[in-house]
Amino acid sequence: MSASPVPRARQRRRYGVHARSVMADPRWSVLPLAARGMWLHLTDIADVMPELRAPVRGQAVKVPDLARLLAAEPNEVIRAISHLVNRDIIEPVSDGYRLKAY
């Protein structure tokens, strides 16, 4: 029996680990459903994609990339982004968006 090449901590990784803190945020209750879902998914994606939290100049995540990562239509992403920007959850940077609250 050979050992797994993946470290034990990574094997047990659960998606949605940020859900409790995100759902406890007071901004959660005033967001539409699409924006809520997007916020939850973005917190999980940010764990493996640090440029979503701290983009390097000229390499922020753009709407088409967000739509691809979320498997959503770009129009739906744009509507959800407007709610998340208004609630200071994500912020526009030079060429895309950055997740502020996670």
Percent helix among the residues? 40-55%
Count of extended strands: 2
Task: Give the class from helix and strand content and strand pairing.
Answer: mainly alpha
Provide mean pLDDT, rounded: 83
Q: Based on CA inertia axes, which overall geometry fits?
A: globular
Widest sheet, order of strands: 1-2
Give the amount of beta strand, in percent. 5-15%
Poorly predicted runs: none
Order of helices and strands: HHHHHEE
Report the major sheet: 2 strands, antiparallel
In DSSP terms, counting alpha (H) and pi (I) runs of 4 or more, how many helices?
A: 5
Distance between the termini: 39 Å
Radius of gyration computed on alpha carbons: 15 Å
Oligomer: single chain
Write the layout of secondary structure elements.
Layout: H1 8-11, H2 19-24, H3 33-48, H4 63-70, H5 74-86, E1 90-93, E2 96-99
Antiparallel strand pairs: 1-2
